[in-house]
Amino acid sequence: MNNIALLFGSVSVYWHGVFMALAITLAVIVAFVLNAVFTKGSKNDLINCILLSMPIGFIGSRLLYWSCNTEEFESIADHFNFIRGGYSLYGAILGVLLSAVIIRKLDSHFNAGAVCDCMAAGASLGIVVGRLSAVFSGDNIGLVIKTESYHFWPLTVYYPQRDEWLLAVFNFEALFSLIIFVVLLTVFARNSNAKTGMKGSYGDIALLFLLMHGCSQGLFDSMHVDALLMPGNSFVRLQQILGAVSFTAVTVIFAIRSKKINGLEWYQIFAPLVSLASVGITLWMELDRISYNNFIRNYSVIALSMLCAAINGFLIYRTTLKDDAVGD
Q1: Angle of CA points 139, 18, 178, to nearest 5°
Q2: Cα distances (Å, whole numbers) of residue 25 to 46, 139, 304
Q3: Residue 130 has what pLDDT?
Q4: For residue 326, what pLDDT is reported?
């Protein structure tokens, strides 16, 4: 695919950059709309967090990518050649969280949970657009598909430069991110019902985003042939590790909150164990995939385990809500 959208003399505007700009713009607009409709929080809080998180997230995403691909950067100038690309989405996510923590330290009245809720929901829709940029950039792709009956969009994508049809993993990621957005929007509306009052706590939407996005990375990063690998190995994938940490940590947080509301119950211990089991199954399938290359079976098992982890997280979350808590 031709990644150049416009040419201004010697200056090129790439489609990948255009899509990313649209993704960020859409995420910001959605965040402001949700802030006005649901959280009704301070617009200045949201603006401050967005302005701070952009440079921090940008630097963080670059550093995470660099840490896994140091050999790609031959000089100091390469590190500042931002046009060439090379970013990790989790770096941007960590940038938002770090920005919220910094502002909270500086301003005790800053509602970090409400701001992160709006930004997380906006980010999930922005990711949809951002993933689709891979049509032009050629990243977030999967295996070469040689069976001609599978050579159709959106399952596969043809790259003339390689004369190959590749699994369009980015399309699946975009679809799943759209589903995440719909789920978060539904939870937003349910938790902010004018008749029943606020359910849960500020920050729940952001935690649910980390839960679902983390589960998605457990599967999709396994499918990437261009995944970020931890330094010094050809197996351990960065996004999978961060995804596993995310959904397991969120499940533990909900389990602890459930204990405070309902007292100690068996499911509060069971929920984190399910998350750990999902991580273990995914690791097992990764090792098995390398040994036997049974991709369909392994991806199916990983998808099922990640689905279980997501449902498990939602079930323990429900026990923390006012109307759904066991003790109510």
Answers
A1: 65
A2: 14, 22, 34
A3: 92
A4: 47
